Amino acid sequence: MNKCIILLNLLFVVNASLLSNITQQKYVEDGIIPDVIDVAPSKKFTVIFDSDKKAELGNHLTPTEVKNQPKIEWEGLVDPKKYYVLAMVDPDIPSRLLPILREYKHWLIGNIPGNNFSSKDAVVIAPYQSPVPPRFTGFHRYIFLLYEQKDFLMFDEPKGTELSPKNRPRFSVKSFAKKYNLGDPIAGNYFKAKWDEYVDEKNLIMINDLFKGLLNKTAT
Ligand SMILES: *[C@@H]1O[C@H](CO)[C@@H](O)[C@H](O)[C@H]1NC(C)=O
Ligand SMILES: *[C@@H]1O[C@H](CO)[C@@H](O)[C@H](O)[C@H]1NC(C)=O
Ligand SMILES: *[C@@H]1O[C@H](CO)[C@@H](O)[C@H](O)[C@H]1NC(C)=O
């Protein structure tokens, strides 16, 4: 009888720790641990696009649905007196099978006071660049992470522009967090997406921009 109770208790404890966080478990199932981070955040924040679609721990969205910068809602998770980093990366670049350019930096902002993204303190290191997963490369994982800074920071990172791939591939959010002493992410969320027609449209926009830049250079 006693043994039975002990066993039941033990099962409960094991179960509780294994399933302690379904959110955390998802990161393991989807290989985000160890591909991107070492410790899964137990909390999630809201990432909502103007298509009304939300990231929901690995749901499938289309490049069309996520083409514009989403709204991030993490009010209850942050302290307005502290500074935060928002990062969005794609580790599956050019594909999850052969991620030789891992990770692609899609979005990176530092010194966000609490949830005030419009604060003058916030530094946009790389503005939001929407996913353009190449055709035939399957689903890519797009991961959003929230880190808490110990202090206001001076970031000496190469900046990205909205349309250029410059300074975006071969990023490591883990190394970035280490460099700025950010610890593990305190919250996150992610979705998956694969090629749709919008990818071709967006690539044309980016190529056009590149040519305009080149033409400008030759003109001067
Ligand atoms: C697990 O994650 C949820 C969702 O973010 C959070 O509300 C909850 O407190 C976490 N539970 C544990 C046991 O850490
Ligand atoms: C956010 O930052 C802006 C600009 O620095 C400031 O004017 C505004 O009052 C802040 N909003 C909140 C809610 O603190
Ligand atoms: C090209 O030059 C024009 C005029 O100087 C400028 O407005 C435009 O932003 C430049 N385009 C690029 C892509 O650099």
Structure summarized in a few sentences:
The chain has 220 residues and is an alpha+beta fold. It has helices at 2-18, 22-29, 32-35, 173-179, 197-219, and strands at residues 43-44, 46-48, 59-60, 71-73, 83-90, 104-113, 123-126, 140-148, 187-193.
Oligomerization: single chain
First-last Cα distance: 88 Å
CATH architecture classification: Alpha-Beta Complex
The structural class is alpha+beta
Report strand %.
15-25%
Q: Report the CATH superfamily.
A: PEBP-like
Overall shape? globular
Name the helicity range.
Answer: 25-40%
| Heterogens | 2-acetamido-2-deoxy-beta-D-glucopyranose
Largest sheet: 7 strands, mixed
**Rg value:** 20 Å
| SSE arrangement, N to C | HHHEEEEEEEEHEH
Organism: Brassicogethes aeneus
Protein name: Phosphatidylethanolamine-binding protein
Signal peptide: 1-16
Keywords: Signal
What layout of secondary structure does this protein have?
Layout: H1 2-18, H2 22-29, H3 32-35, E1 43-44, E2 46-48, E3 59-60, E4 71-73, E5 83-90, E6 104-113, E7 123-126, E8 140-148, H4 173-179, E9 187-193, H5 197-219
Parallel strand pairs: 1-9, 3-9
Antiparallel strand pairs: 2-4, 5-6, 5-8, 6-7, 8-9
The structure holds 2-acetamido-2-deoxy-beta-D-glucopyranose (NAG) (3 copies).
One 2-acetamido-2-deoxy-beta-D-glucopyranose binds at residues 209, 212-213, 216.
What would you say this structure looks like, in words?
By secondary structure, the protein is α+β, with helices and mostly antiparallel strands. It has one domain (37-211): Phosphatidylethanolamine-binding Protein. It is 27% helix and 22% strand. The protein is globular and about 80 Å long. The termini are far apart. One 2-acetamido-2-deoxy-beta-D-glucopyranose binds next to loops. Residues 1-16 form the signal peptide. This is Phosphatidylethanolamine-binding protein. InterPro entries: PEBP, PEBP-like_sf, PEBP_euk.
